[in-house]
Amino acid sequence: MDWHPIQGVFLPSAQCFWNRLWIHCDPDLAKAVTESQSKTIDVKYAIYIALIRHENSTIHINFTAGKNDLEKPVHQIFKVENDLRDLNVNIFIRVPIKLGVKDIWTNNNLQIQGCNGDIVEQPTIPDFVAALQKQPEVNCSVAVCRVFKCAANLIRKQTKFYVISGNVSSGWIEQTGLRSAVFELVSTATLDYNKTAYIFFSSDSINTAPIGKINTQVEVYEEKLPLKETIGGVVGGLVLLALITAGLYKAGFFKSNYKKMLEEAGAGAEGPRGDAEALSQE
C-alpha cells in the first residue's frame, strides 16, 4: 500500500479512499474496477527535505572598529535530510561575497564541495548603508552573492552536508558607517525539484519547500583607549590623596607633628650651648 497526493477529481467508483490531498488504493479492490469505470488522474509523490543549520556552524565573531586588515574564520554548514523517498534535486546555496566595493571573504574563489559556483547575483537594494542602518542583515538583497548549484541524488533517510568555510574580513564594515553594531551574515539554501512529479509535504496548504538559513553574527565595537583609563586612574588617585590629607589635617595630625618637630629642634639647640658654657667656666 502507498499514499500519494493527487490533483484533479477522483471518482469514488474507483474503489479508493481519498480526502483533500491524499489517495489510498487497495490493489485487491482495484481489480474489480472495469475499464468503463476507470479514470486518468494526475498523481504526485510527496517529498519532505529539511535544510538545517548544523550545530558546528560559527555563531559569532567580532572585530575592532577602524581596523580594516583583520580576519576571522567562519564555517556555515547546511545539513540536508531526506525523509520520504529517493529523488534527484538541485540545492541552490547563496552566499554574500561582496558589500559595496569590499570583499566579505578573504578568499575570492570561495567553493563548496560538490557544487558549481559560476553564478553571481547582484543585490536588489543599491543603498546598502541605509538598509543596514535600519536592519543590520547582510544578505543577497544588499550584497553581491555567489550562487552554488549542488546536484544531489538523495536517498531516503540519507543526510548530506554542504560546508561554506573561509575567513571573513573586517574591511567591508567601515563602509556601513557603523562603529558599534552586530551584523547578521546570512547564507540561504533552496530546493529545486520536478514539480510535475513531486509535491512538498508540509502542514500548511501552500506545499512549498522552505528556505534554509544560516546566520553568523559579526560584531564591531569601539576599542577602549588605555590613555583614558590611565588618566582616569591618576585623577582618581589624586582626589583620594587630597581627601586623606584633608582628613588628617582636620584631625590635627600635621599640627601635632609640627609641634613635636619644633620641640626636638629646640632641645638640640640648647644641648650644644650648655656644653659651651660649662667649658668656659672651667
TrEMBL record:
Protein name, per record: Uncharacterized protein
Lineage: Eukaryota, Metazoa, Chordata, Craniata, Vertebrata
